[in-house]
Design a protein that fits this description.
This protein has about 290 residues and is mostly beta strands. The chain is built from no helices and 39 strands. The strands form two sheets. It has a 37-stranded parallel sheet that branches. It has a two-stranded parallel ribbon with strand order 36-39. The protein is elongated and about 70 Å long.
Length: about 290
């Protein structure tokens, strides 16, 4: 086990934590590399321009009882143990600052990560990120096969790409989530910022309120379980398919040309314009809601 290690470009081959090894409060500077693999754990790591990778390749049959700690003088630091066979590798309470990168690969789990301005977290196939915070200027990429749960996008940007998924996210302080490819976003709360749904991405059970906005003008798949309050906004256009929506918020050219709407309640200041080729079924109008059929 190790504590307080500093890893920079002078650390030969970087710093590894594996087996049942634990690293606490390490700092990874520009050019530094830290690998948490095969059951290792890193707590409280600060990434100051370097790179941290967390993954699980395969169980170690035998690990050394004791590890050594890299000191930035040209030695490789290893932290290992020899107890039960692990099935994942974990980083907890990581802070990613300007120029820093955290790569969460297959079998890697990142808990309570903070992504600050200029920092990047990549969650790749088989990786998982839980309870992350993406602050203004920070970026989280949930790539093909990656999963994110309970993310707070607090002014930053989260890109959910290809077949990646993000569940129970909250958007505040002008943050943005962009769902593209065949990705899925579910149980998203848009309080102040934008959820943009593009391509064949799917949005399930979205709630838009406050200064929130759903931008789905480029979405091809269904928007299902949408709730927009009086102060929220939404933009639905050609080819959208909307199912089971409660629309009470402000709208921007809500057109269903060549698309369809099913099980929709329209109220408040909302207005749906159903254009040529559009279909609308099981719709309820409440509180001055308007539907225009053209």
């Amino acid at each position: 086990n190790s504590g307080g290690a500093t890893i920079d470009s002078n650390s030969y081959k970087g710093f590894e934590v594996y087996g049942n090894g634990v690293s606490d409060d390490a700092t990874v500077n520009t050019g530094g590399y830290m690998l948490i693999r095969d059951g290792g754990t890193a707590n409280g790591t600060v990434i100051e321009g370097g790179t941290v990778e967390v993954r699980f390749d395969q169980p170690e049959e035998e690990n050394p009882d004791d590890g050594t700690t890299g000191d930035g003088s040209g030695d490789t630091g290893d932290s290992g143990g020899s107890e039960t066979t692990p099935t994942s590798s974990t980083v907890n309470n990581t802070v990613i600052n300007n120029g820093g990168t955290l790569n969460v690969e297959t079998g890697g789990i990142a808990n309570m990560t903070e992504v600050n301005e200029g920092g990047v977290m990549n969650v790749n196939k088989g990786g998982e990120a839980n309870s992350s915070t993406v602050n203004t200027g920070g970026t989280a990429n949930i790539n093909d096969g990656g999963n994110a749960y309970s993310t707070t996008v607090d002014g930053g940007t989260m890109n959910v790409k290809d077949s990646g998924s993000a569940a129970s996210s909250t958007i505040t302080k002008g943050g943005k989530i962009i769902a593209s490819g065949t990705s899925m976003v579910s149980e998203t709360a848009v309080l102040d910022g934008t959820l943009e749904v593009k391509d064949n991405a799917t949005a399930l059970n979205t709630t838009v309120s406050g200064n929130g906005m759903l931008e789905a003008s480029q979405a091809q798949e269904a928007i299902t379980g949408l709730t927009v309050t009086d102060t929220g906004s939404y933009h639905l256009t050609t080819n959208n398919n909307v199912q089971n929506a409660d629309l009470y918020g402000k709208h921007y050219d809500s057109l269903f040309s060549n698309g369809a709407g099913t099980g929709i309640i329209v109220g408040g200041s909302s207005q749906l314009d159903v254009m040529s080729g559009g279909k609308l079924a099981d719709t309820v109008l409440q509180h001055k809601g308007t539907v225009n059929v053209q």
